[in-house]
């Protein structure tokens, strides 16, 4: 009997099935520091315990994306080890900020299945939930991946397609317990722009660029215990390059977006995300944002719905798609999310 | 008077001499995070405080190899700065897990000496002990190195050869205080295989590979305050390469061994280790294991004696030695150790 | 209205103006670990909580340069984003050691202005102060930079030139509260040399060298939230190289100086610093020191005024300047500082 994990194939999934993912992972102050060494993040809440306490968050939360990457990474060995493609995610909501000492565990429920017409693979839909050591939900999301069949002769399951919202409705966003921006210190946070200063349709070029290295993306991806071969092993791809984990580009672009969105302090939801081109060491990543929508959340807290685009090389024209409707050359990431910002 | 440390030469050692090594080093949650960024480790005990507490370990221990590398690194400036070769180690036992806040100090006693027939060097045997800030032993081990003489005219000391066991006897393994695998959660740990599922002679190919980088091995080696020139300075070797610290390969192989040995949670002893070939940035490291022996330790805890082999490039045939009895090409590490696993 | 920060130009500064810099930053045990992975530091006080407590420092301070880099990095977006050149710093004093949990904020007062005769730029002098969350001063310093004018037609301000000391007087050095070297453990610290063993004029070759990598200097520089483009973006310089942050060379040289100055435990002041040549990945950095002065601080604590020189390639002759009075080829850093050492 082989002891190593072969992963699940399409016919191993059934609608309603619940998978408890290994391995629980405790978040520490060390994660905050390593994250800060890998991404140029300067958002005042994860940077400063004193600032966080001044807006009602005590103990000191870590960067929201730390929780995202850890929670997401847990699902890989069970859901996407035999994936042909990661097709999408939706309805991701951040419930409560994660603080050092929290232990995160993730489970997934299969919510949809559809075999492809070629009979060789199929699409698996899961809803995943990360909880802390007290069983409180930290974040949850839906995701769909195309997975190989082990045996092409296996019969196709009944088609079940879940209904997924293209955008998390503003009224479904969760205000972290205690969050109050009434006495928010804009000088300490680095920019004067509040919720009212942003207009729907506004575009922001975040100016700065970062050239990627293999050591750094490997360190980041390992930190989340994401062990997909292609990120670490030059023998895993014909071109001998290590493919950079898409989440590395998300974190890099989010950090770069500080320059222009310094007060968009907390992630509240991710509506959709497309990793539109591969990234490799040596690429220089830039970012721009577009304001897609706005909503008031509480007396002091507003939400901005933002499109965050990462590009290889700077594109001051901030072009998302060409005339053919396809993503413009150089676009690496198209992320649609809600952020919380002082009103 | 020169202020820098010239290290000890063969004639500086006398049997019975005790050396207190600099510098004491406090282990922190930061070490856990940096370790997790450098090695693809997923063992549930060091990963999760909640999981560790569920098996009786609270506060939350760090990876055993963190203690090993720190304790070992302390001995370098006094024992092996003028070494011709690191010849071997034996009888390494982990006593109690190390937790954040523990300060480790190492001392060594010279237990054997034998001048080489060429009169230019000799073999020094030491027994080293690492203790925490309360004086409790964390780990101890024997080691022998070949060291240059400063003055080839110096008289040879009386030959003293210590008796060292080739394997730590199962009854000498130390059960960490409180460790109880009775309510072990195999789903959370990532694999269903318990002690009874492993057979002596069984071979496990750990499948995954990691391509090494200079930045990563330098960061790891510095973390242990091991400052041997060859690891950090391209001018220290004729080929201009930075030789990778052997301990980096140990930690990499151990982390890779999760895939097939996820429940071999804790190191208990290292019986022997051979670093059979040098490793450099660009090499892709794989690992395989062989079950050498088994022993019951308590009602819930078993021990597996394992051979952990790291290779440059994957060798699915898992060949340790060629017909000539020499290590097969590509073998980097042959490590013989005891691990603790749920019965 | 653009949302991104264009930085201040020469005509934006007025004498007496106070700038509160973003973003406050909490120091953690994670910073200690990442720092230890990037620099070969072995000084016993930041290495060991037990050692630090034995000399009166409890809780456990982090490396002084961690505070320096964080405090300094905060000033970049407001003071030197449009700098032509960093001209110098002076009168830097470390007040009290920083411990994990401290949140650092920096503010600067403009203390001098002088437009250049070309009318295109001018020199701005600021005095910067970093305080912790209780408002206690952690360190302060003066600095002057040459900054572009936005509009060359803008009138020149009145010339104000501050008086700055070339050396912090020994009687102005601050003894950290509680520091007492009476029961200092030289064996644990790694070298036997005390204050009395060093002579003014003594030169120390620190022997070891470290080859720089892009990943490592980027990680260090990010950790301090210093986001100057030239350190991270190959498209920011015509030669396509990432310029290494000068502070990276300071930390590297300081760590290398352990070998010969292991007991120069704490930085007390920086009198002056010149970054005399750029450094890039692939360069191998060595260091040497010269004892410039000595002073007694308390019954158990002495101070050494040291020149710390970093070189590209080892220079056993320890030549600072050529016959022409210019810095010798290979000199990267000339740092003049006071360190505290047991009497």
Polypeptide structure, described:
Three copies of one chain form a homotrimer. Chain A is built from eight helices and twelve strands. The first copy, chain A, has helices at residues 29-38, 44-47, 49-54, 64-80, 186-189, 214-223, 246-256, 258-261, and strands at 18-20, 25-26, 83-94, 103-115, 121-131, 137-148, 203-205, 210-211, 266-275, 284-296, 301-312, 331-342. In chain A, strands 1, 2, 3, 4, 5, 6, 7, 8, 9, 10, 11 and 12 form a twelve-stranded antiparallel sheet that branches. In chain A, a hairpin with a 5-residue loop joins strand 4 and strand 5. In chain A, helix 1 packs antiparallel against helix 6 (214-223). The termini of chain A are far apart. At the A-B interface, strand 2, helix 1 and helix 6 of A face helix 1, helix 3, helix 5, strand 8 and helix 6 of B.
